[in-house]
Amino acid sequence: MIKILNATEGDEVFLLGNEAAARAAIESGVGVASTYPGTPSSEIGDVLSKIASKVGMYFEFSTNEKVAVEVAAAAAASGVRSFTFMKHVGVNVASDSLVSIGYTGVEAGMVILSADDPSMFSSQNEQDNRHYARFANIPLLEPSNPQEILDFTKYAFNLSEKFKLPVLVRTTTRVSHMRSKVKVGGIQKMRKKGQFKKDPSRFVLVPSTARTMHKKLIKKINKISKIVDKSPYNQIYHANGKYGIITSGGAFNYAHDLVNEKELPISILKLGFTYPLPSGLISQFLEDLEKVFIIEEVDPIIEKDVLSIIGQENLEVDVHGKLDGTFPRIYEYNQDIVGASIGKLIPLKLEKKKALKTHLPERPPTFCPGCPHRATYYSINKALEELEMQVIFSTDIGCYTLGIEKPYNTADYLLSMGSSIGAACGFSKATRQKIVSFIGDSTFFHAGIPPLLNAVHNKHDFLIVILDNGTTAMTGGQPHPGLPFDGMGDEAPAISIESIVEALGINVKVINPMNIKKSIRTFKEALTTPSLNVVIARYPCQLSFKARGKPVRINNNLCNECLECINKLACPAITYDNGIKVDQRYCRGCTVCVQICPEKAIKPKGGSSE
Question: Which of 285, 301, 328, 392 has the fewest other C-beta atoms within 10 Å?
Fold first, then answer.
């Protein structure tokens, strides 16, 4: 953190892409920053949460992405520079307000960073958020390395301020998590407080004002169209030949490396400022080419624009991209994919790499040792087994999504953040099946409350299990409104989940999921009680709170190898190797295995466990 904060103009520091984004916010004099954590953007918030107060910046982990955008928009409307960032699907949540901010515009610079996730390393889809720039009519910049993240984001603030429009910066997982040397700039003086000047004809979007503001928005974007052709963020790398590549973002890196390593006679047009499209520059690049390859992740957006330019300019250039099948339409690219795709049309001497020998066994993702979610899923499955009951499991986004894995099998349906309760509403009306909906504490605050209201008002009948581990665990342990401290570590009022649930008149029980016997009894009671019921399974995340009891031991003389601990609990600290064994390095002494062992063969080491 020190290097991000204390580096002075001209210093070169080794930064992650997301760290460069945080530094860009500081150098740009951002006064307000907001986010909801989501990989691959999470590290930006993790950095700012630690250093924002040191530079006088206000930072918050907002309840969800829509709120984060609204917080930033209000600051920018008041003359304070603002920065908001999120993963790609978070922009869907934010979009309702984001599109309108294009209409109202801003007074100080406002930048929205969307971290897209090609190949879905940690996401439910791989949507291409470049569409949002076109959808909302706001400028778009696509950096391809940490230095560009810093430089492009700083430029985006100036551009935003000049045209009084929010600007979208799109990164991808590989760019966000790439680490390289970054030359930092000076830190601009921050404006911490602004003054909102009332102007209902601009900031209150009723139909009459929205029609006027939409016209102004189109004029702004047309003005910006006239500067993109000369933008230094769009560059041509000339080579002698009749072939060319047009590319952007992380895909540029693979194309550039391939062309240089193989000394290919292919010119490259690297687009960094991609909306409005630099049509003049593209037309100029295409003039003397026979073939052009469009290399972009994920959707064929530039490709369609290039085809449009070729049609308008009546150019004779063959275009090869995703639409004709030269490049795959899905997933993250790499140099092998780019090389093999270009090689379909241009003979390339590519070395065929030998497949790496894999020695590691395939291992499905699982809960951490001592994770309370494992205990919750064990207990509810046991309750269902004893009741001889089948249910639909409607689950949500978070660590507990791992319940899809065996032996838990507690995930049947998942759409998005907060969808588990909304979908359960639908299942409860469309079927006669019993439904169990799972949602985490952070996700409950993010998007779980509106569908909960819906369930009450429309008299739905199902069981909601809120897995409260006291953190936003999957993205790295960020705080949420249920905790007594905020995103900068300051004391803050904690919002009680059970108080919200009780206020709606719902039956609610709070359990310690590590108490298996009581948990099973509570779940059986909730599953057999008609009406909407909520069980809050509350126990801290083992990673965030470092809770640890005394490790357990196996008495193999008592163990009859029923494998209940292996087949039903599946704790990674318990293995079978000529008998049941407990790996003392991993065991966190949670004692769940002690409670479920029918032969009492597992005991706390050296006494009772805490």
Answer: 328
